[in-house]
Design goal:
The complex is a heterodimer of chains A (216) and B (411).
Chain A lengths: L1 E8 L7 E2 L3 E3 L4 E5 L6 H8 L7 E6 L2 E2 L5 H11 E4 L11 H5 L1 H5 L6 H13 L16 H14 L4 E5 L7 H14 L5 E6 L10 E4 L3 E2 L1
Parallel strand pairs in A: 4-9, 4-10, 7-8, 8-9
Antiparallel strand pairs in A: 1-2, 1-3, 1-5, 2-11, 5-6
Helix pairs in contact in A: 5-6
Chain B lengths: L1 H10 L1 H33 L7 E5 L3 H8 L10 E2 H8 L4 E13 L2 E6 L3 H4 L10 E4 L7 E4 L1 H7 L6 E2 L2 E2 L6 E2 L5 E7 L9 E5 H8 L2 E2 L2 E2 L16 E2 L1 E6 L5 H9 L6 E4 L1 H44 L1 H9 L4 H42 L10 H32 L4
Parallel strand pairs in B: 4-11, 6-10
Antiparallel strand pairs in B: 1-15, 1-16, 2-14, 3-4, 3-8, 3-15, 5-10, 6-11, 7-10, 8-9, 12-13
Helix pairs in contact in B: 1-11, 2-9, 2-11, 2-12, 9-12, 11-12
Classes of the chains: A alpha/beta (216), B alpha+beta (411).
Amino acid sequence: MLRAESLGITFKERPPLRLPPLSLQRGEKVLIQAPSGAGKSTLLNLIAGILRPTTGDIEFEGVWHSQRSDRQLDQLRATSMGLVFQTFNLVDYLNGWDNVTLPLRLAKQGITPRVRQTIQDIATDLQLPLSCLGRKPNQLSIGQQQRVALVRALITQPKLILADEPTSALDPDASAALLGLITRRLSPEQSLLLVSHQQGIESLFDRVQTLEFDHA
Amino acid sequence: MLSLAWASLRARAFTVGLVWLALMMSVFLLLVSDRLSRAAQDGFNRSINGVDLIVSTKTGPLETLLYSVFHIGQPLSNLDAKHLEQLNQDPTIDWAIPIALGDSHGEFRVVATQAEYFERLRDARNQPMRFAAGQAFNGPTDVVLGAQVAHQLNYQLGQSIQLSHGSGGLGKAHDDLQFRIVGILAATGTPADQSLFVSLEAHSLLHLGWSNGRRIVPLDRLEWDSLPPVDSVTAVFVGLKNPLTLFQTARRINNEPNAAMSAVIPGVALAQLWSIVDRIEAIFSLLGGFIVIMSLLGVLALSLTALDARTREMAILRACGASPLQLAGLVMAEALWIALSAAGFAFLLTHVGSLAMSEWLTREFAITPHHEWWVAREWLLMMTVVGLTLLCSMIPAIRVFRRSLQSGLNA
């Protein structure tokens, strides 16, 4: 369902970057191991359609990114992808609930009772107390903030979850526990692409790929 | 997007509040100065209501207006009884009320006229003059006070006061002659508020027995019942039977063969006079405009400086599916909130303020601001400020747009 070929990108003030090929099957959970600062964020930006590659292309669900308009890529991100970063995932002036429903509001989708139920279910599965959704990010612990961000990433039932070291701010035990909750929460239709340099979590994934980025 | 913008502004309440306050105050200032200057112009244009023509000796229309209506300066010569008679016999003229100036009470001028003055002349709202207390003068030692005179000097009905010969408090008090206050006019919003009114007979009385500024005959030796008829007046207020004959009558008076009189149409002369005063108003508007521009720069500075601190927020919004255009829209929506609420609040403040201060302004400055919600000029002014704010906000909005296209998410 995801294929990236001969990706390369040129930046104004940074050396150009060539990315190794990458592919992902439907329902597959892949761990990408790469050192920090190697270009993982750029890779995720490219897959999410936030950045356009200078060379190469990405195929998602049978359509190449180059064939989609910017607006279509934005919509794709709002409806078919869930993104989670390392830290600071939440808009600090919105409470947990408003953060979670942000993709829906940006995609101009209504918040139906069913959506509410889904949010509650995901929060329960990720062991996030519902009361946390009423609080602002600065009133939540790091672990709770990451859980809110995960609820948001899962709320649209996305086909692909892109996660950039989502648990690295947590201690190893808590990190492994939360990753376990995430992988168990995913349906067989949902794929996960998780970038991390954390060791000892490989067993939670179907496949581990080590990426070598080429800074030309 | 608007609710997101609102939440974002609320999170920065203090800094946003300061910028909002600056913009609000500047719009308020602009609205107030506009409303006051229009009220002043209105009041100015209504300084004399109910009068079709002002007839005086041959002078320029501005001079006539200045001394007969605003009581500024002195006429070079007076009209005499013969002229008054001539006006009274003019078939197109309905009524002619003479006024005689030349006396004062402290800083206020005394207008000697007929009691009919109070029936014929109208206040700034074009309503008949009203007495707040008492009535028109009836005897030669009765005096009627304008609202501001009574208020400022704290005079009551029945009190006795002295009038001075001459003006501006420099004259000599006719100290042996006491005038009794028999009436106090309600505020009119015209120069009448700053005047005292006596009968023409009283005017003669005041001047009787004086020669070259010195009294030669004491008052107690005067025969009260044998006062001489009024032989000279400063100007005559004229009402026409048919307003359509206005220009024709004015022309006829001005073209009198002996060229002794000139007739001034108050509206025309007032417009001429205002065009001089108007420049001050233009300067005020210009200053107001500058202040608005400065506070707009404040709004601009606020959103530009906030941008760097908001890189993360923009990245999250992008990740959640916001397009660069939506992010630019967010920045503009924030500016729209600030502008709309500042302009709205400023308008409300102006409106409530002018309602609350109306009476005081009328009493103290003879300015009566209007209280209408819809005045095209004011709304245009507010819309201009809102429009300019939006225009300014395009600078940070474009920056956000371009940055979000180039930089992506930096995790």
